[in-house]
Design brief:
The complex is a heterodimer of chains A (236) and B (151). Chain A is α+β, with helices and mostly antiparallel strands and 236 residues long. Chain A is built from seven helices and eight strands. Chain A has one domain: 3-Layer(aba) Sandwich (Glutaredoxin), CATH 3.40.30.10. In chain A, helix 4 packs across helix 7. In chain B, strands 1, 2, 3, 4, 5, 6, 7, 8, 9 and 10 form a ten-stranded mixed beta sheet that branches. Classes of the chains: A alpha+beta (236), B mainly beta (151). At the A-B interface, helix 1, helix 2 and helix 4 of A face helix 1, strand 2, strand 4, strand 7 and strand 8 of B.
Chain lengths: 236, 151
């Protein structure tokens, strides 16, 4: 996989392991080294792959310029008015008309998939020329409105990009909005983890329709590749 | 401590038990099970973080990770993300001569109430308890929010 780091500077610190190896004799170091990397059985993981799943090569670039998954049909933007992070009504169709958009349903108290997805999108957006960064709307709709107040969503999104749009509202409205674009969201049950489809939809500015899907596990590289194309309105 | 760790490693090699030395001295005393690459992405919320690492079992029998604790966290639980939610894992089996990866979008630790609030480069101690092997203590490094290992 080819995820790109946002801040590569912190990755090269020498570990205590290398110090230990350096102080051992050559033969012992060889033994330890062989075991630590691509040695025999230890590294042949039987079940070590993440369940989120990369987009497999066969699903990429299906007769088109994008690396995301081509939807079998297009989806309109959900025709809903939700509440933005300043507490004001936000008419999703009207406010994002004519702009490329990435739409994701999730919740802030989600340690793994949600911050990974938003982080990967944020890295891709940050790589755009400054002037282009405002040409795509990244919209996060909470699936846990009881806990995710507008302020909580704002503070969470600010960690990724202060320009990202956060929306909340009545859970049934959110469930229906998600369903209209093929994303499953369940009403949260107290004491259980919220359930939501973890895919991101990619909308073109030209027709305001979703043509592309990014499953959880999509790499930053895929977003970096596709976001400029979405902004330009390259046809999927 | 350093001296003892080194002695342990040399002894292990001499005994033909050349285990995978982990990045912390404590792990060198349990060569069958090692934990490497432990990290915590800088969390977007102060009260919750995820943790990732690779477990390797160099022994001839399977072991089971039964739990993780940290003196810096109120609670640590193991979860696995699925296509639409995440489920708590009561334990995780590591097959003989096999490995299990905790990685983004899959198995992960959920650390609640980390104190002090995580900052870049900070080390967070994790103690992993096993059925079939002694506990292993490692230090996870707080990495940038979008860090992915092995690039």
């Amino acid at each position: 996989m080819s995820r790109l780091p946002s801040l590569p500077g912190l990755q090269g610190t020498p570990s205590r392991r290398s110090l230990l190896l350096g102080s051992l004799g050559g033969a012992a170091a060889l033994l330890l080294t062989a075991c630590g990397s691509s040695g025999s059985s230890g590294s042949s993981s039987s079940d070590g792959s993440p369940s989120g799943g990369e987009i497999s090569p066969s699903m990429q670039g299906q007769s088109g310029p994008y690396q995301g998954v081509y939807l079998g049909r297009t989806f309109d933007k959900p025709a809903v008015t939700l509440t933005d992070t300043s507490g004001k009504p936000f008419d999703l169709v009207a406010r994002t008309a004519g702009k490329a958009m990435l739409l994701y349903f999730g919740y802030t108290h989600c340690p793994d998939v949600c911050p990974t997805t938003m982080g990967d999108i944020a890295v891709a957006v940050s790589k755009l020329p400054k002037a282009q960064q405002s040409e795509i709307d990244v919209v996060f709709v909470t699936t846990d409105p009881a806990r995710d107040t507008p302020a909580a969503i704002r503070s969470w999104l600010d960690a990724f990009n202060p320009a990202f749009i956060g929306l909340t509202g009545d859970i049934q409205t959110i469930i229906a909005a998600a369903k209209s674009v093929g994303v499953y969201v369940a009403a949260p049950v107290k004491g259980q983890e919220p359930v939501h489809g973890a895919q991101t939809l990619g909308y073109l500015p030209s027709d305001n329709k979703a043509h592309l899907l990014y499953t959880s596990g999509t790499t930053t590289a895929v977003f970096e590749h596709d976001v400029p194309l979405l902004i330009k309105g390259v046809r999927a | 401590m350093r001296r003892r760790a080194l002695g342990g490693a040399v002894l292990a090699v001499a005994m033909g038990l050349a285990g995978c030395a982990s990045s912390t001295p404590a792990a060198t005393f349990a060569p069958e099970v090692t934990v490497s690459g432990a990290y915590i992405p800088l969390p977007s919320l102060p009260d919750m973080a995820a943790g990732y690492f690779v477990l390797r079992n160099g022994g001839d029998t399977a072991v089971t990770l039964t739990g993780v604790t940290s003196p810096q966290a109120q609670s640590v639980t193991m979860h696995e993300s699925t296509a639409s939610t995440m489920v708590e894992l009561p334990n995780v089996a590591v097959p003989a001569h096999g490995s299990v990866t905790f990685a983004r979008g899959g198995r992960h630790l959920m650390l609640m109430g980390l104190a002090p609030k995580p900052t870049l480069g900070q080390r967070v101690e994790l103690k992993l308890s096993f059925d079939g092997a002694p506990p292993v203590t490692v230090e996870a490094t707080v990495q940038p929010m979008t860090y992915q290992p092995g690039q």
